[in-house]
């Protein structure tokens, strides 16, 4: 912007590099190819059936290729509606195989080579400001929990966003200073939850044997792990069904019978 003009400085932003490339009058090359397909069908109908029918098909193809309300052509919407109706009539396939569903409900996922795994999820606990003696006691207690876990064991720590709903007051129509204060507090909570994250830890306990005795031993190991984590002041949750499959994928494991 020249210096002699008044007003704030203006910076011209470049065009988006991810915008779809046009091909002549068509929004994209795909739409151009679609029009060519309609035109070919119209030409075939003109030579075999009659000319007006071929012209009608070509006009319909031109309209479907050029006019895209809300970014989607009308023939694509009709095709999507037909696919949805076909799925509702045919029935959707189950999310998991019948053979592994009972195990998933019990909180056990079966991996390759006959290995069974149970996963416990818990949040973190702040230890940065604890006294040195308490910090050392927590460390020893957590080490005892890990030592008491027999069999195969894996740990995965991640960070998740904090839900702001428990910290935001119930929306009440207030005016004046109280309404402004409530709105300001809600905005502060939203910003803090967006910039901060919470610790989420997954504990996986596995066994490679099969049979009811092996599953019973696995249940004992999981119960011991949950009791030890509860003694640390945590709230462990035994994962089941879909949550269990998602947690196994976080470890990089493919559960048998789970559809991707």
C-alpha end-to-end distance: 54 Å
How many helices? The count is 8
Spans of at least 5 consecutive residues with low confidence: 95-100
Which outline best applies?
flat
Strands, total number: 5
Please, could you describe this protein's structure?
With 260 residues, the chain is an alpha+beta fold. It is built from 8 helices and 5 strands. It has helices spanning 29-48, 51-66, 74-90, 101-106, 132-148, 176-195, 212-231, 241-250, and strands at 109-110, 116-123, 152-161, 197-207, 237-238. Strands 1, 2, 3, 4 and 5 form a 5-stranded antiparallel beta sheet that branches. It starts with 28 loop residues before the first helix and ends in a 10-residue tail after the last helix. The relative contact order is 0.13.
The gist of it:
It is built from eight helices and five strands; from the N terminus they run ααααββαβαβαβα. The chain has helices at residues 29-48, 51-66, 74-90, 101-106, 132-148, 176-195, 212-231, 241-250, and strands at residues 109-110, 116-123, 152-161, 197-207, 237-238.
Task: Name its key features.
single chain; 48% helix; flat; five-stranded antiparallel beta sheet; alpha+beta; 260 residues
Spell out the blueprint of helices and strands:
Layout: H1 29-48, H2 51-66, H3 74-90, H4 101-106, E1 109-110, E2 116-123, H5 132-148, E3 152-161, H6 176-195, E4 197-207, H7 212-231, E5 237-238, H8 241-250
Antiparallel strand pairs: 1-2, 2-4, 2-5, 3-4
């Amino acid at each position: 912007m020249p210096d002699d003009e008044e007003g704030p400085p203006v910076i011209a932003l470049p065009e988006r590099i991810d915008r779809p490339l046009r091909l002549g009058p068509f929004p994209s090359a795909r739409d151009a190819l679609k029009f060519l397909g309609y035109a070919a069908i119209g030409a075939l109908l003109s030579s075999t059936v009659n000319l007006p029918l071929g012209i009608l098909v070509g006009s319909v193809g031109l309209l479907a290729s050029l006019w895209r309300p809300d970014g989607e052509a009308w023939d694509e919407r009709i095709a999507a509606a037909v696919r949805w109706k076909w799925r509702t009539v045919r029935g959707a396939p189950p999310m998991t195989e019948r053979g592994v569903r009972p195990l998933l409900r019990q909180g056990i996922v079966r991996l390759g080579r006959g290995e069974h795994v149970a996963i416990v999820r818990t949040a973190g606990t702040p230890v940065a400001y604890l006294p040195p003696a308490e910090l050392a006691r927590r460390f020893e207690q957590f080490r005892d929990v890990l030592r008491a876990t027999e069999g195969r064991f894996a740990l995965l720590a991640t960070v998740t966003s904090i839900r702001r709903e428990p910290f935001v007051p119930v929306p009440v129509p207030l005016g004046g200073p109280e309404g402004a204060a409530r709105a300001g507090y809600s905005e502060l909570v939203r910003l803090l939850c967006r910039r901060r994250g919470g610790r989420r830890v997954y504990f996986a306990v596995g066994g490679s044997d099969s049979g009811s005795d092996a599953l019973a031993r696995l249940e004992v190991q999981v119960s011991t792990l949950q009791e030890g984590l509860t003694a640390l002041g945590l709230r462990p949750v035994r994962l089941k069904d879909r949550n269990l499959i998602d947690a196994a994928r976080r470890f990089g494991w493919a559960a048998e019978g789970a559809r991707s």
